[in-house]
Amino acid sequence: MVISLTAILIATASGIYFLESLIPFPLPVGRWGFSNSVVLFYAANFPLKFSITVAAGKTLIGGILSGRIFSPPFFMGFFGSIAAAIVEKVLFRFKFGYIGASLAGSAVNNITQMFIGAFLIKSKYIFSFLPLFLIIGSISALANVYIAKTFEKVWEELR
Amino acid sequence: MKLFSKKDVFVIIILFAVAFSFLLYRFSHENKRYSKILEVFINGKLVMEVDKPGTYPIYKGGKRITTLVFNGEEAKVVGSTCPLKICEKMGWIKPGGEIICVPNKLVIKFKESKIDAQTW
Fold first, then answer.
1. Which of A28, A55, A92, A151 makes a 20 to 30 Å CA pair with B82?
2. Is A104–B89 a contact, with Cβ atoms under 8 angstroms apart?
3. pLDDT tops 80 at residue A67
């Protein structure tokens, strides 16, 4: 059941990852990150290996769909998502709530992406985006809490 | 899993502290003095300096990757070969701003002025 659900939700997250690029974003760079709601739901309800699978799977399939696979932005998103999945899982283990885990996951995702970006372009100037990314990421993180909670309700009804 | 726990307050405080310290860093960065000379870095290496208004193609490995437009005060890039054209969407930058193109590993910024204080 969990494996089937993981496959369905990787597909859902990949679809969100691809479609959210069509939603206008207030900065010239970046995306809303609503597909991370699936990772958040998994971190709250399943073992770490499943949330990492979802984080890696949605970025890989989303990268293929958008034609950005193995490009520098792909690696930024890939490692950012995995770092967020790990931090969210750790916080849920320590009895943090959805809001705290989602906000921390979003911040860690953005900070990891900046480090990967700085490493790839060999310049620290990419960090100039970080304050705005943290602010906008927090808005997305709260929206992701609502989406993840909805997934959780559906999952509890299915069980 | 709970929607909100008292522990979440720590996350909110840390997040505010991190965002605020980066904003402070950014603010102090903006107060630096900049010359009207543009520096172009590819893969972390300085490849070009521009001090006169004009249009300058930028090459990487013998291929043109973008074109820098400098009006003497502000700069922008046009005709980039990257897929999402994010560097073009950044528009005109003033001293203190940067144009970053991750796919082309390109950074364009105004050179920091050596003189940051005058005593007389």
1. A55
2. no
3. yes
